[in-house]
Amino acid sequence: MAKRDLYEVLGVNRDASEEDIKKAYRKLAMKWHPDRNPDNPRAEEHFKEAKQAYEILSDAQKRSAYDQFGHAGVDQQAGMGAGAGAGPGGFGDIFSDIFGEIFGGARAGRSTVFRGADLRYNLEITLEQAARGFETRIRIPTMAACGSCGGSGARPGTQPQTCATCRGAGQVRISQGPFSIAQTCPRCHGSGSVIPNPCATCQGAGRVKLQKTLSVKIPSGVDEGDRVRLSGEGEPGVGGGPSGDLYVQVHIRPHPVFQRDHDDLHCEMPVSLATAALGGEIEIPTLDGSARIRVPAETQSGKTFRLRGKGIRGVRSHAPGDLFCHVMVETPVSLTPRQRELMQEFEAISQEDPARHNPRSKSWLDKVKEFFES
Fold this sequence. Notes:
This protein is of the alpha+beta class. It has 10 helices and 15 strands.
């Protein structure tokens, strides 16, 4: 299962204080502890996820590495496999990471193999590219094994050494009265090993940040928010685990003419006052070129013309959508004296028989008059 953003897991901002992180974890631990959710099979999964997020974000060094490089920048062996002292169902592990205490029982075994996290890349494209599909190349940051140390994190010629404090266990145990208390080893931070001579190239991380170029094929008909999956191109796994996936998320730029509604397209079609009154033919653009529409006489603003098949054929559609052209009758501006004179003459003639020349206006005025008289 892909690893989520750690801040999102705990529900805190990236600039959250140590105290805020602790409070958020305590709340989630109480909510998802398996003992309190015996009928919820996913409770233990949520509980472990919150615990893992807290282990990293509560450690300044690990948090800094995570903020810079994501999951790949964190030594995941240090905290991702630590089990609770009382087992997954023990009550004591609710507060183990808050107070540094695990009551009773032996430390559970740890797995050191993890699948790499999934990544997301936001790709902005044009409406034309979305309609036709295309292939492009993207550059993304990635983490790769350090070539200088072979991924060990130790300077060439040296090796990581077993932590002398915990003898490789990753934990130290302290007895306090009748309780056996286990704490993450303060020296190796739970990894069980230390690197006395860090590699100068990767600073002991065992990985370096690189840029890689990938080819992405965007299918025709993609819509806003659609994702293209590149299998195995996410963060590399840990301990031989498989790499995560890269999801290229599509965002479509606003178009100067068209607005998309699923497979249909809409556009506003400005028409002059004379053309709307007398009728005429106008040319409108489509994604395939242009088309001509016959505007009948006495066309009103808001009338819609439908061009079948001139929309977009979606990724999962069998046929393209339609293009809807909405008439917008344009009022003349910046009139010359002669134009103004003609308009005034036209208005005077129209008012001689308003019911005939302006039926909508006459009907509306009648309704207003009836409203005030009632």
